[in-house]
Every structure is written in structure tokens, then in C-alpha cells.
Amino acid sequence: MPLSAADLTAIRLTLELATLTTLLLLLLGMPLAWWLARTRSRLKGVVGAVVALPLVLPPTVIGFYLLLSMGPNGAIGGLTQALGLGTLPFSFAGLVVGSLVYSLPFVVQPLQNAFEAVGDGPLEAAATLRASPWDRFFSVVLPLARPGVVTAAILGFAHTVGEFGVVLMIGGNIPGKTRVVSVQLFDHVEAMEYAQAHWLAGGMLLFSFLILLALYGRRQHRPRWS
Amino acid sequence: MSDVIEARLRVAYPGFSLDTELRLPGRGVTALFGASGSGKTTWLRCVAGLERGCRGVLQVGGETWQDDGRGLFVPAHRRPLGYVFQDARLFEHLDVRGNLLYGFKRVAAAQRRVGLEQAVELLGLGALLERRPAHLSGGERQRVGIARALLSAPRVLLMDEPLAALDHRRKQDILPYLERLHDELDIPVLYVSHAPDEVARLADHLVVLEAGRVIASGPLQDTLARLDLSLALDADAGVVVEGRAGAHDADYGLLRLELPGALHLKVAHDAMAPGRPLRCRVLARDVSLSLEEPRDTSILNRLPVRVVDEAPAEQPAHVLVRLDAAGTPLLARITRYSRDRLEVHPGKALWAQVKAVAVLA
């Protein structure tokens, strides 16, 4: 077996983190993307820019501010302590919060594009056919935007799997809790275990390629996430 | 219960304003006619509750749908109406059956007025039920759109240029379905169009809009014969003549169209049950005038008429003359030269020769 128990633990942890993050992001990103797609508010530009920030910021910058705000003296830290949850840095929950921020634009932007592409036409038609706003969203918008939702899920998942800088900043390197594949790979390289490193790095390469193949290989719908 | 549609609706956008006050019959087909940009689609969207910037008062069949003075606005999905869009707007993720049932399922069973089978039969959709909208022709899409709207039990049916996106042949395919709606269902229709032939064929009541203002509203025949409005129709100025089918001459393929005052026209048409109402369109350019009854002429239809009044035509050499043939209004477009030579003036008795009669239904 070329993968050690520690490697497998890291892989399992990474998949758990990516799955949880993707589900939460779809849940939270849906209303945000809908608002961005439909609003005529002047805040749209500001909110859109904030959502896009993780695209351009170095992950270490995101990680640094998250570390401070989730720490005992930070805003998030104060909240979690008041709720009796302790502080989030160097915990799995902390990694989830970090991943939500880090992968936010990769989920929100494809959703927003897909919602915008649905347009007013089907929504107005549904309204004249007695469908309430909620009903319209679930019976018309979501089915028509399905390719965008799938794209958002795939990108959110894949991007979270590839996370490194943020993890290192707020999660550290705790086996079974915060040591994800990318960190495990880093450890192997540091320890000059290149054979082990190859297995993980090659696995990641193959995984990423298959994800992108799934995205671009789908007929008709080309991803438009940026 | 008042069976009337009352609408005082205003919209003001940069570069466009709509300001209308209309009282429309709560039965039959009301056509809103006007050039593009005249505001007719905006008005229809106001009635449906789709136009955000619309202000005013709207009452349909005694129910108030909007009254900004009282802060009342019934959202589109709570208004019992059907809307047929110019571009059909079928749901691409559903097949035809799914589209048809979308509104149907959202209406309480007790309120449903048209069943799926009836709608499918009425619009000839039987063979299309399993198809996706992407695999329908333009005419088929529109028929599905109409059936979908009917199935949502509308108390009024709004149609926004349902034929505008179709070529001539497809139009001819759909018009009979629209006439069946008119004849078989008792649902008032508000029909937006910029095509005089559709209006002449389908409408009972005519509203003419120009630059966001109502310039005429009245029964079709009276409104079409108004000279001031005929100008808006320029080359298409004409009237709709309503009569009843009479005897049929099988040898020559001619049907008698009985008119008020014991007058009649002969039109090229198959035999029809005597007494059935029949609507024809007579264009002003197809009507000529003479002092005596012309006998030796190839023109079949000659009617004694009295001059009502006249107005300049779009072409300076022409005038439009409004005529009365024992109660049937007619328009004739003649040259100013002929007008003076025949000494046309209100009250004068003349013979009108009708060169062409287009049967509309």
C-alpha cells in the first residue's frame, strides 16, 4: 500500500471538509447569488466585489485576517466564546469557516451567472400562472439554472480540496483535525519522502483533471464562473 | 356584478409616458391597436401586474387589482388572468404537458374552467404533449402558450401580439384557433396588435393608442370607419362589414352576404349555413364611386350609399370619403379630382363599387 494511514486520514479529512463546505456554500450562496442577480441596489457592486476578493487575495492574507478575527480578541472569536464554543483556530470547524470564505466566489459567481441567464421571461410567465415568488424559484429558476448549480458545486468542492495557505494559517497541522492532503503533501516534501509525495501529488493532479473534464466535457453548458 | 374592465393607468419612464383611461367591455375581444412604441404592451403588462412603475386604478369584473390611492396592489400571481407572450415563454425544462399543467395545478379544482383535454383539443396539441419546447415550431409554441394560459382559469385573457413572431402561413394556421376561443369560450380577451388584418378579423372592440395616449375606444365597426383614425392606418384604411350568410351560387362559387337594409354583397366563399354571421374587410382603396348605378362593369358589388363626410388621405391627391350603406359604414379612397367632378358632399347619394371583399372568418 503506497499510501500510509496518515495519508488516508488526510484524504478522508479533506473530503469531509470539501463536502461540508460545498453543501454550506450552496445553502448560503444561493440567496446571496439570487440577490446579486436580481437586485437594482447600489450595494450590488460593493457586495459583488467583496464576494470576488478571495479570487485575487493571497490565501495567506485571508488566513491571517481569519486567524485574528476567530482568535480570542476577534469578532468571530468573541461570538463563538459567548456561545460557549471556544475559539475556532486550529479546529476542524475553523477550517470549515475558512473554506467558506476561501471558496465563496467559486460557488456564488456561477450561481449568479446562471440566475441572470434565466432572465425575467420565465419568471413573469410563472407569475401569470399563479406561482408565488418562492414557488417560482423552486419550480422555474432552480431547474433552469441546474447546470450552473452543478458547476458551482464542482468548483466549490475542487477549490476547497486545493486549499493550502488558509489551512496553514488557521488550522495548523493537526493529524485527523486539520491536516488536509495539501498540508500532508507539504510535510512529505519537507521530510524528503518524494515517493509518498508523488502518490499524493499525482492523485491531486488526476482528481483536478477529472473534475475539469467533468465540467468542460458536459455538452452545451460551458462554465462561466468569472 | 359589473362585467367591465376599468383602467386608469399611468407609467412614466425617461423618454416614454403612458396615460390612459379606459372602460372596456367584459366580454368579447378588445384589440389594443397602435404602432410599436405606442405603449400597448406596457399597458397590457400593467393590467397583468408585471410593470413595476405602473400607477393608477384597475378594476376587472368588479374586483380591484390596483388602487394606489388606497395602497392596494394585487401581485401578478394573485390576479386570475392568463397571459400569452409574444415569444410564448414556455418553460424549457418541462415538456408540453408539464407546461400546460403548470398553471392548472396551481388553481383550486373548483375554480378550473377549462380541462386539459378540452384545451388540448381546442388548440390541436394532442400529438405534441410529450415534446420539449425546443422541438416545437413557432406556431406550435404559441398554441401551447395559449392553452397554458387558458388552463390557469383566467377571468380575462391577455394576448401580447401572439402572432407577431410568425410568418404569414403560421399566422393563418393559428387564427382559426383564436376564432374558436372567441366563439366557444366566454372569456374576455385583451388583444395587443399592430396588424390591422388581425384586429379586423378578431376584435369586437377597438382601442387605438398613439404615443401612450388613447385616441379612440369603441365598437370595432364604428371605430374603424372614423376618418381621423383611418389616417393612422394609411394604406390599410378600411372597414369591417358584418353580415349574415345567404344563398350560395355553386356554379360560380359565390356566397351572398346579407347586409342591413336589404343590401347584399357577393363574396367568393364556400357555402355556409344561412344566417351565420360573417365578417368581411373592405379596404378604402378598393371602393370607387359613381353617380349612376354602373351596369356594364366587371365589378360585381354595387351598393347605394350616402356620403357622411370626408377627410384628407395620407397622399395629397386623395381624399377618404365616409359612406353609409343603409347602416353599414364604408370608406372610399378617391382622388380629389374625382371628388370635385362628382361634387361629393355630405348627404349626397352615390353608388359605391366594391372591387374586393376579403372574408375574415
Automatic annotation (TrEMBL), chain A:
One of its GO terms (molecular function) is molybdate ion transmembrane transporter activity. It comes from Pseudomonas mangiferae. CDD domains: TM_PBP2. GO terms for cellular component: plasma membrane. PANTHER family: MOLYBDENUM TRANSPORT SYSTEM PERMEASE, MOLYBDENUM TRANSPORT SYSTEM PERMEASE PROTEIN MODB. Keywords: Cell inner membrane, Cell membrane, Membrane, Molybdenum, Transmembrane, Transmembrane helix, Transport. NCBIfam families: modB_ABC. InterPro entries: MetI-like (IPR000515), MetI-like_sf (IPR035906), ModB_ABC (IPR011867). Part of the binding-protein-dependent transport system for molybdenum; probably responsible for the translocation of the substrate across the membrane. This is Molybdenum transport system permease. It is found in: Cell inner membrane; Cell membrane. Residues 11-217 form the ABC transmembrane type-1 domain. PROSITE patterns: ABC_TM1. The keyword Cell inner membrane applies. It is a multi-pass membrane protein. Belongs to the binding-protein-dependent transport system permease family. CysTW subfamily. The chain crosses the membrane at residues 17-37, 46-68, 88-108, 137-158, 197-216.
TrEMBL record, chain B:
GO terms for cellular component: membrane. Transmembrane segments: none annotated. The keyword Cell membrane applies. PROSITE patterns: ABC_TRANSPORTER_1, ABC_TRANSPORTER_2, MOP. Coiled coil: none annotated. Pfam families: ABC_tran (PF00005), TOBE (PF03459). Residues 2-236 form the ABC transporter domain. One of its GO terms (molecular function) is ATP binding. Keywords: ATP-binding, Cell inner membrane, Cell membrane, Membrane, Molybdenum, Nucleotide-binding, Translocase, Transport. InterPro entries: AAA+_ATPase (IPR003593), ABC_transporter-like_ATP-bd (IPR003439), ABC_transporter-like_CS (IPR017871), Mo/tungstate-bd_C_term_dom (IPR008995), ModC_ABC_ATP-bd (IPR011868), Molybdenum_import_ModC (IPR050334), Mop_domain (IPR004606), P-loop_NTPase (IPR027417). Residues 296-361 form the Mop domain. This is Molybdenum ABC transporter ATP-binding protein. The gene is modC.
